[in-house]
Known about the structure:
It is built from 13 helices and 20 strands.
Amino acid sequence: MKSMTVCLSIILMxxxxxxxxxxxxxxxRQWESESVYKIQIDRFMNGDNGNDQETSLNDPEAYHGGDLxxxxxxxxxIKELGFTTIQLSPVTGSADFGGLAVDDFRSVEERFGTMxxxxxxxxxxxxxxxxxxxxxxxxxxxxxxxxxxxxxxEEWFLDRADEGQSGLHKLDTKKPEVQAYMQxxxxxxxxxxxVDGFRLIGDDVDAGLYQSISQxxxxxxxxxxxxxxxxxxxxxxxxxxxxxxxxxIRETFQQFGQPMSGLNDLLQQAGDEEVVWLHAIDDETNxxxxxxxxxxxLNPTTRWKLALTYLFTSPGIPVMNYGTEVPLDDGGxxxxxxxxxxxxxxxxxxxxxxxxxxxxxQYPALAQGDFNVxxxxxxxxxxxxxxxxQSMIVAINNAPETKVxxxxxxxxxxxxxxxxxxxxxxxxxxxxxxIAMERETADVFVVEEDGxxxxxxxxxxxxxxxxxxxxxxxISIKNRKE
Length: 482
């Protein structure tokens, strides 16, 4: 009996070594609470020189050598910044470094590594309580894709004969054959890798394709798009990137004095949407925000601190592009996606990122709370996030001079404790709370019961100072006598 048990155990171990990775991690956390670090694989970190092929750091169109092992090697770095999810650019076989010119939907680009490397990355991330999301191209293929020479797939394309403006050929996402293939492909990647979600990349995608993919992945899987979906598509999605938000936050914070009213008005709609909004300040489709500030001859560090505070405290899931913490500059050329430089760091930006990511985890109101604008005037915005019994107030002064906002709805006996500037706002004699913000600064306040002044601590400090004065006086008198 014992020998039979041993044999059975060996057989089970042997079989388990060939099973696929279980789909999606077991991380139990609301998606609204996530903070996403977005990575362009080829431009992040070269962790394995063995897969380098014709790389050139001087050619913006060439591969630079970044790979999946490099991402795995830097997971602790990303974790220390406070991020809970990493979003990877397309990993599939592609004719370009960005992964958008797909030539094989069901293989890992060999310059990035292998399926085993990707599986290892996901496992390592999950061990750090981090989720992984893959960019999944669902409409475009490269001119080298074998389907273009396959007569049986002629009807799969909208433009088989001619390339579109992007140089890519577009699939007809209304075709049942295309939907079936992408459904199987989604199931393949979800089960093989154990990732937690897909960002679905493609414009004017038919709702039927979203439905097919939604039905192929686990229930807890998170699906979102890079484009505003049609009304018919919304029920099959969990989230959507909002291009209008990205455009407005860039215009608002690239220079001082700009009002935040447009952003605030846009976010008032977020609570009425059926899907979660995801927001970013920059990505591979536009100039780095750093360069926008440089063009305005302003300090990028100051501009980034204000923009990041708004991004991480306003409704929606924040998505931060890799290298923001440096901060990377692309010289103003769209598509000039530069290699991450781990030797550089802006300590002020890094500290702000660590603060706001930590706050999102510690205070649910910042991630899941209602959004209410309390003050908007001359570049100063004050808004409140409330969730259950928790209330947070965010004040951002984008003006070139000190501004003051008066808050009068909190009731008696409260105080506002600042988490970024370490100050405390107490109730005035007229019952209001006066928030004064210096130029180009931001703070996040916890609304809590006023504990009064800490007289014990004040007394202790006073006693120490008193003893110091007495000691100095005694030594001075003694020196004079001698």
